[in-house]
Amino acid sequence: MLRIVPSFDRIGEENAFAVLARAGALAAQGRDIVNLGIGQPDFPTPPHIVEAGIKALRDGHHGYTPAVGIAPLREAVARDLHRRHGVEVSPDAVMIVPGGKVTMFMAILMFGEPGAEILYPDPGFPIYRSMIEFTGATPVPVPIREANGFAFSAQETLSLITERTRLLIVNSPANPTGGVTPKSEIDALVEGLEAHPGVAVLSDEIYGTMTYDGGTHVSLLAYPEIRDRLIHLDGASKTYAMTGWRLGWSVWPKPLYDAARKLAVNSFSCVNAATQWAGVAALDGPQDCVVAMVTEFDRRRRLMVDGLNRLPNVSCITPKGAFYAFPNVARTGWKAKALASALLDEAGVAVIGGPDFGVYGEGYLRLSYANSAENIGRALERMGQFLSERP
Ligand code: PLP
């Protein structure tokens, strides 16, 4: 009998992948499925980025690179952070990793152990909790409330810090809610954190380029007060429609950087070389492709929110960032996960039940509007029909 170590009993999943598989299986049986479940842009990677990847392969970039990533990409990340947030970051603090997830994996491994508490947003990206549990640390959910526009509440977050808290995970713009935490709240959070110098902060800013209605994303990198304990997470997956390339980057405080480098050496060695050169083209190249994608997401966002608010017993606040809507379906009388399954099986619409993002996700669904306006329209029509027939 093979015996896997017990910590694997505690590792979780990302249900979006299971929904994607189930939607694919139904489609293979000939069912017409509209998939609003998975969180990835439906655009192809912009051509100049693809060309840079191909050129890198043609130019012979076939070998290992430094574990922390090639210098031109680390320099491009530093330039991008300066351009977007006006912050000075040394390329020597930047680490290139195979996707945004890897930064959270590393950060949670560094601070998670039995007895430690890690604060994470709930509803939030499911891998936070999964990894925290894997390490044996205690996951402490920070409620992300609709009444607060799905933003972090500085006061509520700070009130959950104890002498055992080792890491606080923040995410804005947020998955799954689309919430954007305003600068005033971030100011208050950073101010409050000064009383807790032993708490590290992981700021997941993977949707940082996607804000709407004139709102801007405030990076935690812009706060010198916490730079010595801030891990900044970002990557190319969402901004440049590169989910399958596996390219992320992070900025680490000096004492943690070498630990991150060692984790890289012990696991993936480096991100594949051609992908890294494509990343240089993404960050240094024209940004109009990003503007065009975000403009299109904005159009679809309004379409989706309008449509959701017309469904019986459904209400949806307008998300300010990312590419998700998080409608409140509590008044339909359905449990959210049961509703998500029934919508897939009976109406051919794949969405994710809020509880897949945490206990505070009950009563909500997550719909991705990284899909065509036509598909969003079809999905809303089917949902409307389903909810009127099966209230
Ligand atoms: N962080 C958040 C909040 C996400 O929603 C995702 C992906 O869905 C990631 C990180 C991971 O991104 P990547 O695909 O680059 O690993």
TrEMBL record:
It is an enzyme of class 2 (transferase). The gene is aspC_1. Its EC number is 2.6.1.-. It comes from Methylorubrum aminovorans. One of its GO terms (molecular function) is transaminase activity. The lineage of its organism: Bacteria, Pseudomonadati, Pseudomonadota, Alphaproteobacteria, Hyphomicrobiales. SUPFAM superfamilies: PLP-dependent transferases. The keyword Transferase applies. CDD domains: AAT_like (cd00609). This is Aminotransferase.
